[in-house]
Amino acid sequence: MWKPEHRKKADRRGLRYDSDLSEAEWALVGPLIRPGKRGGRPRSVDIREVLNAIFYVLWTGCQWKALPKDLPPKSTVWEYLDLWEWDGTLARIHHALYVEVREQAGREASPTTALIDSQTAKGAPQRGASLDPSGYDAGKKTLGRKRHVLTDTLGLLLAVTVHPADVQDRDGAEDLLREARRSFPFVERVIGDAGYQGPKMEAAVARTGTWTLQIVRRCDRHRFVVLPKRWIVERTLAWISRCRRLARDYECHARKAATFVRLAMIRLMLRRLATSQ
C-alpha cells in the first residue's frame, strides 16, 4: 500500500531525468567503479553522467543516437558500457548490491533456494549487421530471443542467459545453472514449472553437484490459484519489463541483451537501498 512516506521516498522530481542517479544512489555505486589507470592523460569523462546515460537508454528505450545533448556522446557511453561488461565491473556492482539487499532483508548473503523461468522477447524488425541468431518460439508465436533467469526467493537475480527463442527451456537451462553455480555454491533446490521436467533437466541439475529440482505444476481447477514460489520469478520478469529497452529485443548480440537485464536489476536494487536509508 502506498503511503505518504513511500511517495516521498520515491519522488524524483528534483532530478533532471527520472532515470538519473540520485545522490544516495551514486554514493552506493560510485565507489564500486574503478578509477582511471595511472599514467597517460587523466580521465576527463564524468562517470556519473555515463551511468545516467546508460540508465536513460535502459529506461526510455531510445536509440543510442537519440541520447540528449546534455549527456555524454553515444560513442563514449557505448564504449564504457562495453568495457564494464568485458572487465566484470557490472557483474561486481550487481553482486555487491545483491549482498547488501539480502543483508538488509535479514537473509544470508548466499541463498539456498533458486527459481528458474524464461521470457521470450519479440525481436526488433531492424537491427545491426552483426547478429547473434534468433529463433521462433512456437508456444508464444514469437520470433526473437529468450531470456533465461534464475532468482532467489526475494526475486533478486542470480544469473541470466539469452539464447534463441526456439531453444526449449530444459535445453537452455544448463548454461544458466553452470553460471549461477560459480557465484552461489550454497543453493540446494531449484524450483521450476512443468517446462523443466524430464531426464535432460534432471541430469543438468545433477551435474551442478548437490542441487535438487522441484517442479511446480499448474493447478487444473478452473480458477486462479497462487502457485507456491513460482510467482516470485514471474514477478522479477515483470520488474525488468518496466524498462522499455527490454520491451523488445533490440540488441545485436545476446550478451548485450543479458547485460541490460543485469542493468535493470542494478537499477532496481539501487533504488531499494537508497530509499531505505
Structural description of this entry:
It is a single chain. With 277 residues, the chain is an alpha/beta fold. The chain has a domain at 110-251: Nucleotidyltransferase, domain 5, CATH 3.30.420. It is built from nine helices and six strands; from the N terminus they run αααααββββαβαβαα. The chain has helices spanning 4-10, 23-29, 47-60, 74-86, 89-104, 169-183, 199-206, 230-241, 254-275, and strands spanning 113-122, 135-137, 142-151, 157-164, 189-192, 212-215. Strands 1, 2, 3, 4, 5 and 6 form a six-stranded mixed beta sheet that branches. The chain starts with a helix and ends with a helix. The mean pLDDT is 88.
- Order of SSEs: HHHHHEEEEHEHEHH
The CATH architecture term of the domain at 110-251 is 2-Layer Sandwich
Principal-axes shape call = globular
Q: What count of helical segments does DSSP give?
A: 9
Q: Determine the strand fraction and express it as a percent band.
A: 5-15%
Question: Approximately how much helix is present in the residues?
Answer: 40-55%
Specify the biggest β-sheet: 6 strands, mixed
Structural class, by secondary structure, is alpha/beta
CATH class of the domain at 110-251: Alpha Beta
Stated plainly, the CATH topology of the domain at 110-251 is called Nucleotidyltransferase, domain 5
